[in-house]
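Forwarding the complex inputs:
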Amino acid sequence: MKSASLNWSPDRGWTGSLQGVALSNLIIAFGPRRAFETGGILADIAAAAPGAVIIGCSTGGQFSGTDLRDDDVFALAMTFERTRIKAATCFVSDADGDRAAGQKIGASLAAPDLAGVFVLADGVVINGSSLIDGLGSALPPGTPITGGLAGDDAAFKQTFVFGPGAVGSGVIAAVGFYGSAIQIGHGSFGGWSIFGPRRRVTKSSGNVLFEIDGKPVLDLYEKYLGEEEAARLPASALLFPLMLSDPANPAHEVVRTVLSVDRDARSMTFAGDIPEGWAARLMHGVFEELNAGAGAAGQTARDMLPDGAEPDASILISCIGRRLLLGQRITDELDAVMSRLGPSSNAIGFYSYGEISPHGVSKRCDIHNQTMTVTTFFERAA
Amino acid sequence: MMQRHPLLHQQLKLCMDAEGRLDTEKLARLVESAYVDMDRERSRARRTLTIMAEEIEELTTDLQRRIDERTEETNVLRGRFTGALDSITQGILLVASDGMIVNANLIALELLEISASDIAAGLTFGGLMRRLYDRGEFATASQEQAEIWLRLSIAEQPGRYVRVRPDGRHIEIRTTQLADGSCIRTYDDVTERHQREQALIAAEQEYRTLFDNSVVGIYRSTLDGRQLRANPALVRLNGYASEAHQLASVTDIGKEWYVDPNRRDEFKRKVLANGRIDDFVSEIYRQGTQTKVWVSETAWTVRDPDGRPVCFEGMVSDATARVESERRILELSLNDPLTGLKNRRAFLEELRLALKNARRRPCTVGVLCLDLDRFKFVNDTMGHPAGDVLLRKVARRIRQAVGRDHIVARLGGDEFAVLVSRCDGTTLAKLGAAILTAISRQYDVRGQRCIIGGSVGMADSDGRRADADELMKMADIALYVAKSNGKGQAIPFAESMRAASERRQKLENHLRNALSNGELHLEYQPIVDARCGAVKTHEALMRWESPELGPVPPGEFIPVAEESGLLHVVGQWLLRTACTDAAQRLEPRAVAVNVSAVQLRSPHFKSFVLNALAASGLPPEALELEITENALLANDQVTLDVLTDLKAMGVKVALDDFGTGYASLNYLQNFTFDKIKIDRSFVVNSNSNPASMSIIRLTVALGQDLGVQIVAEGIETEAERVRLIAAGCHLQQGFLLGRPARLPTVIATQEPAGSLRHIGNPRPGKTAAVSHRARRAS
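Prediction (whole assembly, two chains):
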């Protein structure tokens, strides 16, 4: 396969000619919502690569390699030679709930030679856990699902997802990769550190958490954030992700990050389910550990390719929470990933409201928060 | 060159253009932003630490509170635990994995003779053992054993053992090792249990000796028929090599042991219903052979405390010899040893069986009852051995006559019966005739010839639901009729016979008690010299007034008395009463008594007469015995000898009812009567039938020639009296001359001898009642 990175900026437009992507089968693009809504960018791409499946989403910042830009659009054009591609999209409003939407997408993509699915979904209105649960249930068991939830510059108001036949809010766009030539690697690590006492989820419903240890969860967060940062909720809550573990299966740990808060109900909505009775611990980030986690994700995703081959293309999806914490030092984690993927690897990515990947231990596909999630693509030669 | 901070390096990179010019404004903004970030981060870290410290403080406080609560609970539990330990009857010792004694309850302290302070002072298990040794607790063990014992840790010692203390108490010691290596040891005084066990062992040994050495088989079996135990005697009886061999071989007693598989069910039913069963006799197979033996079982049900049956226990003895002898006895009991025919019991069994079969496969069952005529005569005259020979010959002839298809039995005496299992309308009649023909032929008995006859009564089950007894009764009734009708006949039963038979039976039943109940009495009728009216003697006439049956005529009850054998008793009473009355009350002191042939043939008759005379004081000459012609028909020497003897002593003998019997004047030659009584039939006809008058005159002439007085009976009219006097017959008897009356009446009307009496209110008596005019003879 061949791959090429594309860049569009508001003041310069496309960097270079788009002619090189004419034969691409798949183009994945990330950028600010305003750029897709007004810039005619999608039309440019569609015209340049008429045979390509084009999917993408709005973000909390996008990058190519270690080059992070908030106003630009980055795209990755991939030309597969021995791999079949199929896209499926869905407005969540057309399905009977998030899980049903996932099942619908899965049913459309399911096939015996399906090697993996890459999915992007609205980051504000969709419960990622339900979506993945529905999608996984309709696919052959063990099919790896990677991807992420779209962002909107940490505003948590409206995100934008596009794919064939569906563009806008509340959209799910997915691509299936078929055949034995394609190899898809994945890795997902946080690197966050737990602190404080072990707590317990005492009241929750779906992805809405009401109480921890019998007290309103928002009280706890406001106490730790302090007055100044509490005013910046929900974004500031990303500084303190929550690690959950099932008491019946303690090895299955997931990290949840906040999507929204309800100050009246004293509740917080997370980017994934918060089951009652599960153990919960607050987390905080230390630069070196977060960077090491990102590096481990890149290494794992590469190690899954045959003989540790350098990937033909990679998609990096990192949590908006990591960016808020790392601030100006955010590129350190991109450096850590890129150093593991190899010097010639084409990689783009974005800061998301939720990362999708098989779990490192349980291998169950799930929504993650506060992680660096890396998907690597490698197509065997004939 | 100094290594720059990566962040500054990054910031400078972002603020430098392609030509290397630095955008200081931008740099300043980035640096400031970094400082703000750092301040914020530091402030966040400080706050986090503070809050975390607060939370930890809170948690610690909470934890301490919970520890306090738990400690309180633990103390309460410890108190309860100690209380519980001290309240149980076992001694308990807790030893830690390092051998330190941790705890001991009161019983243990007492038993081991240690104190709580010893434990507090750090007494070890090894130390305890040494103390026990020093106190002599191991005195019953050898020195070597004790030394070994002392070296073992608690965990190395056996999990359970019993130690005998020097005072003889038995202590059971159990040790349980816990997961943490500590041990719990319990001490239980099992002396009493030990003693009970020893007693049980002794008792068990005692019973085992009985079980093993008993000559009677003893077993225990399950309810469903499996053998659980068998003693050596039973094993031998069953032919097995060992108990194990038998238990392994017999899985179903019902099928494998009993010859009749239904016996087990019967056994179970009885033993469960009654709790036990005695002398349950069954035939069984000996092991592995077809050899059968008879056994007698006595068994009982073993029940659990709730009363549910658990198993059976029992004793078995060999009953083969007993069963064989019982069988032989039964065989004997069913056959008549004299003739070899079946006896009455066997005959009835066969009859019952035949009737049962007939109900299943409808057919008619017939019975013939045969009574020999004149057998008694043969027996009496030729002796019993000859009688036995005759019976055997009769039996043989009957058997030949009826053939092999029918069952012949001797019911007793000279009674025989034949059972015909299937018969039609003519079978019985043909067989009856054949039997009578066969037995009536002449017999040669010990060189003497004799002829007997028989009567046959027949009955069949056709159209009746008769049982064996009923059928026999019917045949008996028919037999009775056959005999009454003159013998030598075979007569089938008819329903019409039943009433007469029942009447006869009723009479017999009542007659048995009539004498003791005082229902019998005598009436006396005078025999008079009709010329002058002088009473010469009285004829005693027996009367029966039954409260249930009313007055029974002598003509009806005398034959019944004769056949039933009651006549001897009744006749004896009559003779005694009449003699007494005559001796004490009658005038003249003379009485005539009727005597039957049956009485005459009794070997005791002569002594009866002599006793009656002696008891009453009546002179023999005043007693007159009236006998009928029929009584002399047999013409046997015994009767004649008796009469001759009595006559020689002075007793008078009169021939009664002269002219009605079989006309043989032969007996007048052989015996000299004192009186001949002309039957009343001649008197009644004397007026109308010249022949009767001729016979009367001839008889009178005969009497005059032989020197015998002639008496006319049944004189009821004056014309008869006169006519008879004219014919020369002066002694007369009849209603005209005196009715039969009870003694008081007779006495009241007695007049001096020779006077004629008038008796009014004629009523039925020995002679037909006619009204007459009383007159006094001149």
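Chain A touches chain B through 15 residues (CB under 8 Å).
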